[in-house]
Amino acid sequence: MTVQTVRVELGARSYDILVGDGILAEAGPRIAEITRGKPPIIVTDDAVAPLHLGTLEASLGRAGIDPGTAIVLPQGEKTKDFAHLERLLDAILGRGIERSAVLVALGGGVIGDITGFAAATALRGIDFVQVPTTLLSQVDSSVGGKTGINTRHGKNLVGAFHQPRLVIADTATLDTLPKREVLAGYAEVAKYGLIRQPDFFAWLEENGRRVVDGDPAARRHAVTVSCRAKADIVGIDERESGDRALLNLGHTFGHALEAATGFGQRLLHGEGVAIGMVLAFDLSVRLGLCPAADAERARAHLKAVGLPTRPTDVPGVEWDVDELIASMAKDKKVKDGRITFVLARRLGDAFTLRDVDAAAVRALLEDAVAA
Asked: pTM for this one?
């Protein structure tokens, strides 16, 4: 079994990301090192539990640890709210935990985010391990310590920076995902090429279909490169005061699109990011910052693998430009009343800009929803 190790360098809080095909079955000993032989509390959802919980529990058992009874939450983005956070914390605290307790988040980005936030707040902070089972969570949300929940005011507006102790990314778990979920995760993979790694984007143009279609070697490579790219940025800028903001390429637009569709199945997070990245490149072109050919290259690749690239690709939605702009104004990156956009000088050269003409943004959105 080939296992790639990516190190997130954060001094005393540094940790490893393990990437491999089938490594969930070998996770027990590594988790046991962190729990010091004590049982962790596994948190998962009702879609992941039937698929992967047994494998994790068996691995812990072979390491001499009784995994106990997992906490199983409902699947879906709507679980990332105050009500489910309260339910989760009540279940954790009801077990009489001490500060040595360790949570294990087994699932996609929703489970990772809410479990990480519970770990950040229970007893003012306990350890947790990320075991991501979706492509999106393996390459993005499980790495870097961003945790949180959504509110009616917007996505991820309540949360904390709380780094995991370990990330175990078993690429074999991706075989159980619906194709649409794989594609949504692929948007975050492509993002790394678009912001800083044009050579990786070129590799994706040649091999993206292999990643989406389930080629094990292609998936391991894509996940490892993505994790290494994020680890490098997080190691420099843990709390998003500089370069880490580049990881939000497409997210300012994407989160607004998600909010307009109710954070549900109509538009998945990665789908919103894909559309948002195309809009960010299009805005860069309109502002005279980026060659039109680079924007078209980004759009063409995302479309070729099967992702939506414009708001009108989402069926059954009547887009309201005023509503989208109002949502963007609530973005976490707003400073002094101005929205921070991640734009591009060229493919693989992203940057942040706050002094963006509001009229240009409105015109872009009006054209996009009318296309």
From this structure: 0.93
